[in-house]
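User: Predict SESN1 protein's structure from this.
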Amino acid sequence: LRRAEGIASGAAADGLPAPAARDGLGEALARLLMLSKRCPFPDVREKSEAVLSGVQELGIRIPRPLGHGPSRFIPEKETVQVGKEDATMHTLFAESFATLGRLDNVTLVMVFHPQYLESFLKTQHYLLQMDGPLPLHYRHYIGIMAAARHQCSYLVNLHVNDFLHVGGDPKWLNGLENAPQKLQNLGELNKMLAHRPWLITKEHIEQLLKTEENSWSLAELIHAVVLLTHYHSLASFTFGCGISPEIDCEGGHTFRPPSVSNYCICDITNGYHGVDEIHASPAGSIPVSSTESVCEVEALMEKMKQLQECRDEEEASQEEMATRFEREKRESMFVCSSEDEESAATRDVSRHFEDTSYGYKDFSRHGMHVPTFRVQDYSWEDHGYSLVNRLYPDVGQLLDEKFHIAYNLTYNTMAMHKDVDTSMLRRAIWNYIHCMFGIRYDDYDYGEINQLLDRSFKVYIKTVVCTPEKTTKRMYDSFWRQFEHSEKVHVNLLLVEARMQAELLYALRAITRYMT
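Assistant:
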C-alpha cells in the first residue's frame, strides 16, 4: 500500500500508474485480485479485498476479472464457488493452495470429482516438487515444452512463472534452441509422443541415452516421459473443458473499467464476451428440445441393455473380434469435425518448440501402415507399471492409482437416471481412445463402440485427444445434451487418462526393447 501511495502522487491522468511503475504494481494488484477471489482461506480473501480497496481510494485503478468462472463452457453458477465448498473439497483446495501457491481453474473444474482430484494433485505434486532424477527447473521447462505442442498458453503461462520462480534461466524461454542441448534432444520425443506415439522406436531411446556429454540416464528419461505425457493429456483437459485463463495471468483480468453494457469494445476484439454471450447457445447450433435430449438418454440406455443381452447369449469368434477392431480403427481415421473453426486465440508459444507443422496424423492416411499394438503383448499392468516403479520409485504406484480411479469412477447415474451400471459405456470410451492409437484388447468386442458412441461424441473425443487446440464450445455442447456438466467433466477425465496411458505404453515399450 505504501508503494501504491508513492505511485499515486505521479499517477497518469487516466487513473493508471505511470508506465515505469505500472508493471510491478500491476502484477501485485493482479495477484491480490486472484487472492480475493480464489484463496480458500476467508481471512486472506478479505484482507486482499481490503488492500485493493485501499489502493483504489488512492485514485489508482485496480484490475477486475475478465470472463466468468473457471470454464468458458460451464456456467459459473454450476461450478463450485470458493468459500461455499464442503469439508472434503475445502481440504483439497487448502492442500492445492499450499502446494501451488494458487487455486487454479483446472482444480476448480476437476473438483466435480474429488476422489480423482486428490489422486491427480498428489501425482502432480510428486512429479514437480518431490525428490526425483530431474532438477526442478528442468521439470517446469519440460512442462512448457509439452503444453506448447498443443499451443496451450494456459499451461505454458503457469509453468513459465513456476520455471522462473525456481531459478530457471529466462534466456531459455526465448526458444528451445536457447536451452541446454540435453533438453533440445528431448524435442523429437516430445513431438512423437504428442502426435504420433506409434512411431517411437528403441533407436529413439538409444539416441537420448547414448549422446556423450548430453546423455540422459534411464531414470531421468522415465521422469521426462511421465512429465511429457502428463502435460500433453492435461492440455487435452484444458481445452476439452474450456478452462479460462487464471485471474492473475494474461487474459484473466483487465484494468479497463466495465462499460455500461458490461463489456467494452477492446474486450470484444480480444475475444472476451459478456456473460450472456458466453453461455448462450452457440451460433449456428440447432436448439434441441428437452424431449429430444431425453430420448437420446433413453436410447443410449436401451442400447446398453441390448448389448448386455447379446453378450450373454453369444460370443463372437477371435477372427470376427479382430475384424471389428480393424474396422473401428480404420473408421476412426475419418472422424473429423465438419467445422474448421479457429481455435481460441493464444499467446505465441511456438517459440518453445521446433517444426510447428508436425501434428497428429492418422495411421492409414498417406499410405502409412502401423501395426496394431496388442495389450496382451505389452500392458501397463504387467510391464509398464513395474518399469516406471523400478526407475522412478512410487510414481508407478501413483499413476496406477490415478488410472484406476478414472476408469472405475462412477456414481451409477446417467443424466436424470439413477442406479445405472455405466461400466459398459466407460469401457467403450476408454477402448475407443486406445483404438485411435492402434491399441487393441483381444477380449473386447469393438462392435459395441458404434452402438454406444454417436458421431458428435466421437468428433469431440477425437478432437480433445488428438488436436485439443481445435476444441470448440459447439463441440462440447453437441454431445450428451441432457447430461450434467459434471458428467462431461467425467468424460474428460477418461480422455486424459486413456491418452496418457496410450502415450506411456508406446514410450515404455520402446525403453523396454532398448533395455533388452
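The chain has 23 helices and six strands.
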